[in-house]
Design brief:
The complex is a heterodimer of chains A (755) and B (307).
Chain A: E1 3-10, H1 15-35, E2 42-48, E3 51-57, E4 66-74, H2 79-89, E5 97-101, E6 104-113, H3 118-131, E7 152-161, E8 164-167, E9 171-172, E10 175-178, E11 180-182, E12 191-193, H4 197-206, H5 213-230, E13 234-235, H6 239-246, E14 253-258, H7 268-279, E15 282-285, E16 292-299, H8 308-345, E17 352-354, E18 358-359, H9 360-378, H10 382-391, H11 399-403, H12 410-418, H13 423-431, H14 446-465, H15 479-492, H16 499-517, H17 526-537, H18 541-552, H19 558-598, H20 603-610, H21 618-633, H22 635-658, H23 674-695, H24 699-707, H25 710-719, H26 727-745
Parallel strand pairs in A: 7-10
Antiparallel strand pairs in A: 1-3, 1-7, 2-3, 4-6, 5-6, 7-8, 9-10, 11-12, 13-15, 14-16, 15-16, 17-18
Chain B: H1 9-22, E1 26-27, H2 42-45, E2 54-63, E3 79-88, H3 94-104, E4 114-118, E5 121-123, E6 128-137, E7 140-151, E8 154-155, E9 161-166, H4 167-175, H5 196-214, H6 217-236, H7 250-269, H8 275-296
Parallel strand pairs in B: 1-2
Antiparallel strand pairs in B: 2-3, 3-9, 4-6, 5-6, 6-7, 7-8, 7-9
Helix pairs in contact in B: 6-7, 6-8, 7-8
The chains are: A alpha+beta (755), B alpha+beta (307).
Chain lengths: 755, 307
């Protein structure tokens, strides 16, 4: 069984595309071979900046012969049907067989596919793979029509067995396959032939090419950490950068340098970002001082001066870059020291956040108003939260963030401290963006929590109001992340807020602001203005028409009309509230379900908790769900659920049949059986325990009390037939079941539970 | 081949000229209009279109008004030089030819780390894009290397290979200079040695002031509109002149497109173009470039008419 080796040798493949290309090459070729009837034992794919390689072990030498029988139309069927069958089978009329079938005589096609040699199949599959390769971006070159990520120079394709290696012949747009490749561009540029994968890998290594990107990454990391250690430093881990750099070199040579004294005063994040983004350098930290004092660069070549010229050049480029960074840093510090963070933020009035949602400054004003109101609920001082909201995005106007957008927030903390603002305000500059993803930390400082909540709620209500909701996989404004952020902020800090109220408040604020910003004078006709009011402010038709008339009426006056409108908006809040709770809150609940499912809570347990009042208080909701989940894991819990379901089923059926609701208190005096009387006592006791526990939101206690009902309910169903002939007793028993339902449903909607 | 190190800015230019002449390129002269980059020269923009083979190399003085720093920044200039090579169809050994040009100006691959790092090129004003790399030498970008895929909205068939060297930055690196104004322009041993600053410090100051503070924006705007109108008028003229000869005026029209593009850059430097207007202006220039490209491919040089 031969081994197959394929190498596609090209000009430099972008580093970011290599991993995906390796996988695609492996998948497309192996799928194609398997589809054509070949099997193989193992497959490995590799990439360097100039090559994609696939090695298959023990490929079958030829595909098995295949005989396929297909049933066609009946003899005498319309000509069209027979023609179609001939076309689909690729046979002629005389090759069809006629066989007897249940319904008479039928045409049969017998298609014989002889086995084919592996080489033939490999050539076909590789050509298809190359011609349809899913590069994110591809190009043509010279006079050809072939597309590849960059010009493709040669194709190595050999099958190797005990008799030696044989080239699989193929020719794609003038590139003929062969058994040769080339080594490192500068250190070993000549072509050489190979006889199999081991030979290939060994010869490449001699020609200064390490084939495996993992090996290159390991080599880089090993040398980098060793060198840093020798200099008393440690390399700052950066897996993304390591993978990228491993994709930029075939022969990694690690060089280390020191950062000039002049730049050591820059914040470590600035040094790291500048070095990583512009030059793909690793940062080296001094563990004693915590400062970034050195860098590691990875060259692609060995030189006679052991990299001295290369290092000097890199150092020079770094100095130029860091001079720029220092210039930005010093300029920004001067700005905040003279005009403060709010001065720095002034320009945000001219920065559009979204053309339907106003400027960044407009947005900040809304966040400030909301943060001020939320503050007391999370234990923050309103004035402090408001101040934090005003300055939290100021750094978007700094020179440094203009150059490195990924430093937003981080720079804000430095600049706010330099401006002499309180620690809590400074911290909020970064923390109000958090959590940025599922693995990011949740802020805990009350000021940060208030601003972070206000920021995310404004984002959500804003984009909801202009109908930019996420659909399917599309979520351009990261609204799912914002909702999950709110959920984690609330749960992580045990915040008790009724979310619906804040969503409504935020939307009313937003619409008020939009109305204030609307140029009413530009409308000449009342009906046009009314339409605009409906659109921008979400007013109902009646309200919009009434207000349009007021705004147009000079006797009322514009300012009075707007004020009246704002008051009305408070009332219109009712409409907004209905819509918001229906849609946005449902969006939150969906996100919460995903979040809790990841935490191991069943979806039906969440549904049972969601169906209870106060479900916009997420902390309460989750406490209930957690208590319920724990309860259901106990033996009593599971059995009580069965008892409840039985009671509920009997009751629901009886109610449906009788057309009444059995909710009038059952009376113990009609109890006939001791088990019935015991249940009465037990229900009284449980009710007495559950009501105060629920009032105290102590779900565990409530559920323990509920669990105590298990034995009496089981005993009741054991001893008693509910639907007896005695109508009075039956009614009393149904009312008793109703009490069970009522008590149980006061804890959670158990009807939503499965099983 | 071992080469001695060049000693001046002009020596680097001269070596590039003779290197690319040896590779068979027609060494052209700069285009006689204000342009933002060497790509705007019709020898690149228009000649990248159509089926006829082409090979040209030239220095192009380029102007980017917003990059002016009054001659004080060590690296930034509002007027600078690009070296531009365009070969159609792109030869299979273009990377090697390019590396040969670096060797010719004294960059020895045995001592330096030369890398091709992904950088796709796009010119929204020319409706053009291509794939390629920025070339790094010891971590510094020294050239842009692009395989043109589209120009003026037309697919490039065959594909041209374009090389662009930022001459000042490259020369500063080769010569070991930290501030562009200190760079020797002619031989430092010449009877009258001149630095880059001797030649350009004065002009950088003057143009920075004019670009940023003084240029008459109303006039610039009017010129922009005139250039746009003239470009469209030229292209709308009948293909036959009054003697019946067929002469499509793609080049005169393209001159007006170049003018409009530079006037837009000046308006931008004066800060009178808002973020939303920017896109609209770029779209207007691109529309002109596209019409010029449409016209050029109908001409003899554009391969639209048999020669």
């Amino acid at each position: 069984m031969p081994d197959l080796l394929i190498e596609l040798f090209s000009e430099e493949i972008p580093a970011r595309m290599q991993a995906r290309a390796r996988d695609d090459l492996k998948k497309l070729v192996t799928d194609g071979l398997v589809e054509a009837g070949l099997t193989y034992r193992a497959a490995q794919a590799f990439s360097t900046p100039r090559r994609l390689t696939l090695a298959l072990e023990a490929l079958t030498a030829e595909s098995r012969a295949v005989r396929e029988e297909r049933k066609g139309p009946a003899v005498g069927a319309p000509e069209k049907a027979v023609e179609g069958f001939l076309r689909s089978t690729g046979l002629t009329m005389d090759r069809l067989e006629v066989r007897d079938d249940k319904k008479g005589q039928v045409y049969f096609a017998v298609i014989e596919k002889p086995g084919r040699p592996a080489a033939e199949i490999v050539a076909e599959v590789l050509e298809t793979t190359i011609r349809s390769f899913p590069w994110p971006k591809s190009m043509r070159w010279g006079t050809g029509t072939l597309r590849w990520v960059r010009p493709l120079h040669s194709i190595l394709c050999i099958l190797t067995d005990d008799h030696g290696a044989e080239v699989v012949p193929l020719d794609i747009d003038g590139i003929a396959s062969g058994s040769a490749t080339r080594g490192h561009r500068f250190l070993a540029p000549d072509a050489f032939a190979v006889t199999g994968f081991d030979d290939y890998q060994a010869k490449l290594k001699r020609a200064h090419v390490i084939l495996s990107s993992d090996d290159r990454a390991d080599h880089i990391w090993h040398d980098a950490t060793t060198m840093a250690f020798a200099a008393g430093l440690e390399v700052v881990e950066d897996k993304g950068l390591l993978a990228e750099v491993a994709g930029l070199v075939e022969w990694p040579v690690v060089l280390m340098g020191k950062i000039g004294e002049d730049f050591l005063g820059l914040p470590p994040e600035v040094l790291q970002t500048s070095m990583r983004e512009h030059q793909k350098f690793f940062s080296c930290r001094n563990p004693k001082t915590g400062r970034i004092e050195g860098f590691v660069t990875v060259a692609n070549t060995e030189t006679s001066d052991h990299g001295a010229t290369i290092l000097k050049g890199n150092q020079k480029v770094l100095s130029a870059r860091l001079s720029d960074a220092r210039f930005f840093w010093e300029n920004d510090l001067r700005t905040v020291k003279s005009v403060g963070m709010e001065g720095m933020a002034a320009g945000l009035a001219n920065v559009t956040f979204h053309n339907k949602l106003g400027s960044q400054a407009d947005r900040i004003a809304r966040i400030e108003a909301l943060a001020r109101e939320i503050a007391p609920l999370v234990g923050a001082k309103p004035d402090l939260a408001a101040e934090a909201a005003r300055v939290a995005k100021a750094d978007l106007q700094s020179a440094m963030v203009g150059e490195f957008p990924e430093l937003q927030g981080t720079m804000g903390v430095y600049y706010a401290k330099a401006a002499g603002l309180p620690e809590a305000v400074a911290m909020a500059c970064k923390a109000h963006y958090q959590p940025l993803g599922p693995s990011d930390d949740v802020p805990t400082d009350p000021v940060s929590v208030a601003v972070a909540l206000a920021d995310k709620i404004d984002t959500l209500t804003g984009f909801w109001a202009i109908d930019e909701k996420p659909t399917g996989s599309k979520d351009p404004f990261a609204l799912r992340r914002a909702a999950l952020g709110v959920i984690r902020l609330v749960l992580g800090n045990g915040v008790r807020i009724g979310l619906a109220r804040w969503l409504v408040r935020s939307e009313v604020n937003l619409r008020t602001a939009i109305i204030r910003a609307t140029n009413f004078e530009s409308f000449e006709r009342e009906d046009e203005l009314a339409v605009a009011l409906m659109q921008v402010a979400g007013l109902s038709k009646e309200l919009a028409e009434e207000k349009a008339a007021d705004l147009m009426d000079e006797r009322v006056g514009r300012e009075a009309a707007i004020q009246a409108l704002e008051e009305k908006l408070g009332i219109a809040g009712k409409d907004i509230e209905a819509r918001t709770t229906a849609e946005l809150l449902a969006f939150f609940h969906d996100r919460l379900k995903v979040h809790l499912r990841d935490e191991g809570i069943r979806h039906d347990v969440i549904d049972a908790s969601l169906a209870m009042p106060g479900n916009d208080d997420l902390t309460l909701l989750v406490r209930r769900a957690e208590a319920l989940a724990a309860f259901l894991k106990t033996d009593d819990g599971e059995n009580l659920l069965q008892g409840f379901k039985r009671a509920n089923n009997i009751l629901t059926q009886a109610e449906a049949r009788d057309g009444v609701e059995y909710s009038f208190g059952a009376d113990p005096k009609f109890a006939e059986d001791p088990a019935e009387r015991t249940l009465f006592t037990a229900l009284d006791a449980a009710e007495g325990a559950i009501a105060p526990a629920m009032k105290a939101e102590d779900f565990a206690t409530a559920m323990t009390a509920m669990a105590s009902l298990r034995a009496p309910i089981d005993a009741f169903f054991e001893a008693v037939q509910v639907n007896t002939d005695n109508a009075v007793v039956r009614r009393n028993r149904l009312n008793l079941l109703s009490r069970i339902r009522q008590i149980c449903l006061s804890v959670a909607d158990l009807t939503k539970l499965e099983g | 081949m071992t080469t001695t190190a060049p000693r001046s800015f002009q020596e680097i230019i001269l070596r590039l000229q003779s290197y690319w002449a040896r590779q068979g390129c027609a060494v052209l002269q700069p285009y006689d209009m204000e342009v933002g980059a060497g790509t705007f020269h019709p020898a690149t923009t228009l000649r990248a279109l159509g089926s006829r083979a082409w090979a040209a190399a030239y220095v192009q003085p380029s102007r980017r008004p917003t990059d002016g720093r009054y001659g004080e920044n060590p690296n930034r200039l509002q007027h600078y030089y690009q070296y531009q090579v365009l070969i159609k169809p792109s030869p299979a050994n273009l990377q090697d030819l390019y590396l040969g040009s670096l060797a010719a100006i004294g960059i020895d691959a045995g001592l330096h780390d030369i890398r091709f790092v992904e950088d796709d090129w796009e010119s929204p004003t020319l409706g053009a894009w291509g794939l390629g790399w920025e070339v790094w030498c010891d971590g510094m970008e020294v050239s842009q290397f692009t395989y043109f895929q589209q120009v003026g909205g037309h697919d490039c068939k065959p594909v041209s290979g374009e090389l662009t060297y930022g001459l000042e930055r490259l020369a500063m690196y080769v010569l070991g200079i930290d501030h562009v104004m200190d760079m020797p322009f002619n031989d430092p041993q010449a009877p009258i040695p001149l630095t880059y600053g001797d030649i350009f410090r004065q002009t950088e100051r003057e143009y920075s002031r004019w670009n940023f503070d003084q240029a008459d924006t109303e006039m610039l705007l009017k010129h922009f509109e005139d250039a746009e109108a003239e470009c469209e008028r030229i292209l709308a003229a009948p293909a036959e002149d009054n003697t019946g000869r067929r002469i499509v005026m793609a080049h005169p029209a393209y001159d007006q497109c170049i003018k409009a593009s530079h006037l837009f850059n000046l308006l931008d430097a004066r800060g009178v173009i808002s973020v939303t207007e920017r896109q609209a202006y770029i779209g207007r220039v691109r529309a002109l470039a596209k019409k010029c490209a449409d016209a050029f491919v109908t001409t003899e040089a554009g391969g639209g008419v048999a020669a």
